[in-house]
Specification:
CATH class of the largest domain in chain B: Mainly Alpha
Strand content of chain A: 15-25%
Distance between the termini of chain B: 40 Å
Number of strands of chain B: 0
Distance between the termini of chain A: 33 Å
Shape of chain B: flat
Strand content of chain B: under 5%
Radius of gyration of chain B: 27 Å
Number of strands of chain A: 14
Number of domains of chain A: 2
Number of helices of chain A: 13
Oligomer: heterodimer
Helix content of chain A: 40-55%
CATH superfamily of the largest domain in chain A: MetI-like
Number of domains of chain B: 2
Order of helices and strands of chain B: HHHHHHHHHHHHH
CATH topology of the largest domain in chain B: MetI-like fold
Number of helices of chain B: 13
CATH class of the largest domain in chain A: Mainly Alpha
Order of helices and strands of chain A: HEEEEEEEEEEEEEEHHHHHHHHHHHH
CATH architecture of the largest domain in chain A: Orthogonal Bundle
Chain lengths: 458, 295
């Protein structure tokens, strides 16, 4: 404004705020959209062999059923998480069936441990094979991990073995299933991603995927959610009812302030109080008015109008809850509109209003033809701000209705990311919807005001 | 001209004039009376809920549960309800957390916003209008959208359920308002004062430190207090970002469905008090910001 130097100082001064808002504002906004539309674990890729270095042969969508063809133990490549299935292999030595010494690896399931030292098994016996028709002998392999490897020796049941070493391996499954295109593919995947059938160990399903993809699944799930329609309609209804009332009350407040009564500053302070009051506290106050033993019931009873309490807050009386929420919102958020309108009015030249009065314009005419047109920029800002804030109404709803009888979009966002459920995708879908409606209303207000101006010019 | 007309008409129409003047005066008085009536009823509308919850919070627990309630409460003033609330599980910790979060937010937000506010009020530069518009856009943006992705990020980085992570989020929420308020504070200090100081031999930095800072300090303090109040009141993000280390509103919200009326009313009142005091101190500055925004 005043210094007309061209230098970098202003940019340097703005930099911290820009960086901060980029990290804590722009990034979360983009990330929120990707949470709503991107499924991290949509597909599980299968590999030609049981190794991460092996090429991917295809991918099977999450929740698809697969046939488990084979298993293999691998040395742990990643840290063990809760889903990882492991198997233990023993390196054993014993005298084989023919009396020759045998040494090799065997799956720990096949050995009954007889002796341990310090928790490490040292001595065991080969278990008997129970299934009829199965191979009565157990194979000992040169390498641990696979039952297809080179066999070092074959041992009878009950053979005594020395356990020399043990290794914990991560299990991979070889599965066969159908991909998105309907083609049958076969390949290996880590067991952590697959749930094996308890009844039938040869079948399983994909528990989660390892590759993400863009999807509308969360949006569909949101629309199909039982609270969705109720939340959407209630949010819009509350916005549509609350905002006109707030603007009328705020305008009246602003005109009262403009009238410069005695005690003007006191009135100004009183009208501005709700600006700093916690949303949750306001919700609790209006809940206090409307409960069965609340002030409204007390008042009506005191006047002798009723004999027993009216139940305002129940599933049957949703309209009363809506009324209570509207009153609470009008109480709470009219101040911000009032403040914006008063600042706008301060910029209106008093001569204009005096002139209008001199020419015999009544109050209504002055408001309609002088004050409102001059306040248009203020009203626009207030309207956008209030609408967007009204779409987020949260704590008031929670306090008055407990958050279930009457629900809003923000309450659903909270439901999907409170301590019981932590589903960031659904929460982001609801939040994204609030953002979408906010942006559309803002554009609508900006355009509506502009077209009016253009119409006035032509 | 007018004096002449008055003189010529004085004798003829003085009675008529006086009657007119009296009528006009009466109409003015009536209008004034109506305005007062409206002002007072609006004031009552604002005060009544605060008075009612105050009278609930400052009575005995039996009084809270009693029905029908007296229309003029405060019959038996007692601190039992308040002390019951303050001794409830998690409340003291919630208060401490809330204060810590609000203080970190206040410091961070003011430190980041003050230079930005100075820049937008003192310099003309390319992108200035865009910056102001963007800041206003951020101010109006739905907070709810930010909370969930930040919670996911904080969870991954091990910052979840920490007071400072809530403060980081609150700083993002309050920053736009603080920038605009501080900007308006600097804008209200005439540049000529700075210029005069430099003319008298001060360097630009000295002029800033000796002239601008002392004048701007009360306004910046007001902005900082408002930041504190916004953080103290914020409930959605605080609830999403915490589990054990809840702030006071998050704690009360979480306990809402399982708690007694005493707890709720005392909690509501307790959250309300600081705002009443703080808004009183900064009431003059509330209008600065919006005057500037709508220009």
């Amino acid at each position: 404004m005043k210094r007309k130097k061209r230098n970098w100082t202003p940019y340097i001064l703005l930099a911290p705020s820009l960086i901060y808002l980029a990290v804590f504002f722009a990034w979360p906004m983009v990330r929120s959209l990707s949470l709503a539309f991107y499924k991290d674990d949509a597909q599980l890729s299968l590999r030609a062999e049981a190794s991460f270095t092996s090429p991917v042969v295809g991918a099977i969508p999450q929740a698809a059923t697969v046939t488990i063809l084979d298993t293999q133990g691998n040395h742990l490549e990643t840290a063990v998480d809760s889903g990882t299935i492991t198997e233990v292999w023993y390196r054993i030595s014993s005298s084989g069936a023919d009396g020759a010494a045998a040494e090799g690896w065997i799956l720990s399931d096949r050995v009954r441990v007889d002796e341990e030292s310090g928790g490490v098994p040292t001595l065991g016996r080969i278990r008997a094979v129970r299934r009829s028709g199965a191979d009565p002998q157990s194979s000992v392999y040169v390498q641990p991990g696979s039952s297809h490897g080179e066999v070092a020796a074959r041992l009878d049941a009950q053979t005594e073995v020395n356990i020399l070493e043990l290794v914990t391996l991560e299990v991979w499954y070889q599965v066969s299933g159908t991909d998105r295109e309907g083609q049958t593919i076969e390949g290996w995947a880590q067991s952590a991603f697959i749930t094996r059938g308890e009844q039938d160990p040869s079948s399983g399903f994909i528990k989660k995927g390892d590759t993400g993809e863009w999807t509308l699944d969360f949006i569909r799930a949101m629309v199909a959610d039982r609270f969705f329609m109720s939340a959407l309609t209630t949010t819009l209804l509350l916005t549509v009812i609350t905002i006109p009332i707030q603007f009328v009350v705020a305008l009246v407040m602003a005109l009262v302030i403009q009238a410069r009564l005695k005690g003007n500053t006191l009135f100004l302070y009183l009208f501005a109080i709700p600006l700093g009051v916690s949303e949750l506290a306001v919700g609790i106050v209006f809940y206090l008015l409307f409960t069965e033993s609340g002030y409204i019931n007390s008042f009506l009873m005191g006047l002798g109008l009723i004999d027993q309490s009216i139940t305002f807050i129940s599933i049957q009386t949703r309209h009363w809850i809506i009324i209570a929420i509207v009153l609470a919102e009008v109480w709470r958020a009219t101040s911000i509109v009032m403040v914006i309108l008063v600042s706008g009015l301060q910029a209106v030249p008093t001569e204009l209003l005096e002139a209008a009065e001199l020419y015999g314009a009544g109050l209504w005419q002055r408001v309609r033809h002088v004050i409102l047109p001059l306040l248009k920029p203020s009203i626009q800002v207030a309207l956008i701000l209030r609408t967007i804030l009204a779409l987020q109404v949260f704590a008031v709803v929670m306090a008055i209705s407990g958050g279930d009888i009457v629900t809003t979009l923000s309450r659903e966002t909270y439901r999907w990311y409170s301590e019981e459920i932590r589903n960031p995708n659904m929460a982001a879908a609801y939040a994204g919807l609030i953002m979408l409606i906010s942006i559309f209303t803002a554009i609508f207000y900006l355009r509506a005001v502009r077209t009016q101006e253009e119409a006035a010019i032509t | 001209m007018t004096a002449e007309i008055k003189l010529t008409n004085a004798g003829v129409a003085s009675a008529e004039m006086q009657a007119m003047r009296r009528r006009a005066l009466r109409r003015l008085r009536i209008n004034r009376g109506i305005t007062y009536a409206i002002a007072i009823s609006l004031a009552v509308w604002i005060i009544l809920p605060i008075y009612l919850i105050g009278s609930m919070a400052l009575t005995t627990p039996a009084g809270v549960r009693g029905f029908p309630k007296a229309i003029f409460p405060f019959t038996d003033i007692s601190l039992d309800t308040m002390s019951f609330f303050l001794q409830s599980q998690g409340i003291l910790r919630g208060i401490v957390n809330s204060i810590v979060v609000a203080l970190i937010t206040l410091v961070l937000s003011t430190l980041i916003a003050a230079p930005a506010g100075y820049a937008i009020s003192r310099y003309v530069f390319r992108g200035r209008d865009f910056y102001r518009l963007a800041i206003l856009g951020v101010r109006a943006f739905p907070v709810i959208v930010l909370a969930v992705p930040l919670a996911v990020l904080f969870m991954r980085m091990g910052l979840f359920d920490k007071t400072y992570s809530v403060a980081l989020m609150h700083t993002a929420l309050t920053l736009p308002t603080t920038v605009l308020v501080i900007g308006s504070v600097f804008a209200s200090i005439p540049y000529e004062l700075e210029e005069a100081a430099t003319v008298h031999g001060a360097t630009a930095l000295q002029a800033f430190r000796r002239v601008v800072v002392p004048l701007a300090l009360p306004g910046i303090a007001a902005a900082a207090i408002f930041t504190f109040v916004m953080s103290w009141n914020e409930v959605f993000a605080a609830s999403i970002l915490t589990l054990e280390n809840r702030t006071l509103p998050a704690q009360v919200l979480n306990a809402l469905n399982k708690s007694s009326p005493e707890y709720q009313f005392a909690g509501g009142f307790f959250m309300l008090i600081p705002s009443l005091i703080f808004i009183f101190f900064i009431r003059r500055y509330l209008f600065n910001m919006w005057g500037q925004v709508t220009k």
